[in-house]
Amino acid sequence: MNLQRNAAALGEVGLALLPWAPAPRPCWIEEIDADWLTTVLAAETPGARILSVENLGGTSGTTDRRRLAVAWNPAGVGAGLPTRLFVKGTSRSAKNRTMVAALSMARQEVRFYERVRPDLGDIAPRAYFTSAGHGARFMLVLEDLAERGARPITAEDPITIEHAGAVIDALAKLHATFWKPPRLECDLAWAAPMTDRPGFDLLAWQFRRVRRRFLAESERRQLSPQTRRMIQLVNDHDQALYRSWSEGPQTLVHGDPHMGNTYALPGGRAGLLDWQVVFRTRGVRELSYCLIPALDTSLRRDHERELIRRYLDGLAAAGAEDRLSFEEAWDDYRFFAHDAWDSVALTILWAGLHPPDPLEAAFARCCAAAEDLAVDEVVAARLGTLRPGAQRERSQPQQQQRSHRETAQRQRRHGNAEFHE
Question: pTM of the full predicted structure?
Fold first, then answer.
């Protein structure tokens, strides 16, 4: 199976590097015109016709993205057809296409919109058109979220605890909807476990290269001994760790829920964008991934436990059975912090995906969390390599520092409670 999967991934990478590959048209945003959009949006509205399409600008990364303004004739206006669209298409960068092709990101996102999105309400955009071909050629025509008052979050935006809580609610809804359902073995079987994801071996190889690079630069980057030990443990035992992601209660996960892939909705709710790497694993993985890189370290320290409880309450309210206890969820949250670190480190070395300054800030937060949460210890414990009593062997200054910090956190929480009362 690995040979077959890797051969398919390499074949897609080869097609991604070519200037042409077999795929439905249009697959480039520049190919979209009024006549084609009319067939997509007005198939059930006789007489409706698009008169003009205006490009309102956009961005390029792993995909090309544009906002479009659509002008309708009177029949289209009277039918209330969409006047604003958000389109995602094939990246003009061959380098970026290789990532999308190797991980089958375009195909995964098309499957999400066709088979998962109908069950999720407003925590994901609506899709008007989806198609995907070979070599990361694809096209998505989505609603423009601004039409219903949504505000996309950017990498430069400071993340408030209110928005973080709203994202946790959205993740709880997603995970509860697909919490150990039979569909994961049937029509959603394409949402594979981590070790069976498209391009997994290439992804794992890439992460190893990134970790080795950061270990080699550990002095320049001022990585702490705890962070270095975490990196080394993960790099030495990544396959065993990735296999462990399939243990315990499984659910469908977004896969890449960093805060730049979220949006704020009216009324304090939130949703998620860019569903390109949907797979299945333990749901708390998503909490580590979205909270640790995004929240200022002091904010995370003060609120991470309550956000985990909020997530568990959301699962319970939605009827998810056999949920984790808080202690189990907290242990998962600490464990999956290594994956949040991995993802930010990879993005730093994959230049051009995100602005550098927010990435460096996210990296510093991940390193701080690696120390705060003793991620090296929980990773070692999962591997069965933590010697009995090793946690008690933590140096006295470290114990005192953690004790002082936890005391200060309790004082701040009590102080805040008294203030609100």
Answer: 0.87
